[in-house]
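ERR on first pass: missing label on line 2. Operator R.T. fixed the label and resubmitted. Corrected input:
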Amino acid sequence: MDLQLASFIAAGVLVVVGLYGFFFVDNIIKKVIALSIIENGVNLTLVSMGYREGGYAPIYLPTLKFQLFSTNMAYPLPQALVLTNIVIGASMLAIMLALSVVFYKKYKTLKTSIILKED
Amino acid sequence: MVKKMDNFLPLIVVFPLIMSIIFSYIYKSKIVRILTFLMALILVVLPFFGTYGTYFFGDHAIALGSTSLTSGIAYVLNPAKNVMVFTLMLIGSLILISATGEKKLNGIFTSLMLMGLASVSAIIMAEDIFNLYVFYEIATITQAGLVIASGTENAYKAAFRYLLIGTMAGSLLLLGIALLLSATGTLNIEDMRNFLANNSATPAIYGGLLMLIIGLGYGGGLPPFHTIKADMYSRARPFVASMLQTYSKFVLIALMIVILKLFGGLPYFNITRGVLIALSIGGMVFGTVMALLQNDYKKLLAYHTISQGGYVAAGLAIGTPLGIVAGIFHGINHAIYKSALFLGAHIVSKAKSSNMAKLGGLLPFMPFVAFMILCAKLATIGIPPLNGFQSKLLLIDAAMKANIPELAIIMILVSIGTFVYMMKAFYLIFLKPCSEEQIEEYKNIKISKYSVFSLAILTVLCILLGIYPDIVVDRIYPFAKDIGINWALNK
Amino acid sequence: MIISKVGIFMKYDEFKREMEKEGTGDSMSVGAGLTGEIILYGSLVMVMFLLSRVFSEVLLAIVGISIIGIGISTMPLIFKFKEENSNQMNIQLFWISIFVGVLSVALYLAK
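pass 2 clean. output:
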């Protein structure tokens, strides 16, 4: 199978699994994990968009021939986007996990239906 | 094409960002209060630094035959965006001024406020859809941080909800952007618009549109995300909430403009326009009905924000030039009078609590404040000669011109609901007879002069824009004419 | 509109009792609640008008009217509405998932 297609399918599966986990699992930490799975799925989508079979990493080295490099280079834009998104995702994850710790100390449970119930 | 202009447009975004980093380092210092006041003064003049036009960061243009694509971040400033940025900065400045009157002011709060102002003004100006996403996420974190800063357990919960769902919506928005990038090969909104206008739709484009709408719903607080937003506004301290609602109103306008710009004139946008109108009707009706049921003044105002967000979205969703003008104008008006109302709630909640059943008879103790709150309330109901009247008239006119009288009727119905709960709140807080003990308690109230000052400026703006709406409308109109299309429901 | 008004006034006592249960039985709050009920139904009727006009289908109008009829028979609807709009996380997530699903179907059909 085409590697790029396979990678897209994997990304789609990750997003769907993440959405399922986020909506239907009643555990705060698992919800956060599911969110990070969605994020990774999106990142994989972006990276596989820039994939080129037998291509070079988009870093120009003096040893490469310019003509060969410019025609076989992977698309660099998505990689830059992914890098940014990973940083944002990490900061979000940190805040959410910190808040989860606070809630666990207070309620001694991780169930969303108890912690985030109606008030 | 790609030319670097000699203007200081990036300062609007970069300066608050740098200052927010500095404030987060000196948060314990004693000069924070003075510096915050100074920042408040600088913020008002900041929007005038940029000159109109496009600003490119770096000179990376890819030439493909005859078309040249822009790669790299670009910001656009035009009169309409300048008005929005100015309103945002003005409200931010007034909130910072009233924050200097607070006892527990620390640098982290100012830092978060500035970061939010920078990111929302970047969202308004960004011409690059990925840059928009980055600042969208920063705005989410900032808003959650501002809610957490109020320090109660309920605030923690509201912020946690907001972050959980925000991460989901943000990821989906990025997925949409990825799909659009794969379909069109560019991130620049103008280039993407040209591509979409000249090529037929593919499944990736539909997917991108879907994800953009999810991001819009979350960013703007349209249903079904309204409960999360309302929760957040009501848990934050009221003068913080006035900033939060301003952020989300402008995020709503900016994202709506992006969607209209990209897809507005395309034949397959019709059903999406229907979906957007349905969402805005939902926002209006759900917000009002929930507000009518509330006993807590802060919660009432929170749901009122949702319902007015529905108005803004309705105007923009209609998509005619008149509708876009009405939507943006109503958004600006809403940001102004709603900030006034939240500041009023801040002053009132100093008296005792925000529970309306426990208040009453406050009128003799703060007659001037009560008058200004009444002005803001009349503006939101849509009584002439206040600014809410002008924009609601435009909205209803836009709905009638697009041949959707049902939408106009719903708008009027919702206005009646707004009247009922606003007058209910005014009666219960200021006019209801109260006991002797309460009067004794009220005598000790100290009203912060800074808050009253901010409230007064906002009230003056309400009246000014009500009498001279052209100040804003004339600036928005050319922009709206550019992105709007003329259509009417012919059935 | 007329139907919904009749429906409300017939069950006024019930409505007041329900409001008193939540400690908001004063005349002002009951009035506000009734206004909310009228707005909810009024906008429902208006949306039905709009939908039947856009899709110009008699069937849709009939379905809409029967939905309103069922709604009126389970008066007052506003308390159920309030329950669904509570800030319990699971209810919020349920509606968001429904929203995402409906939106995808709508845009898929638009092709």
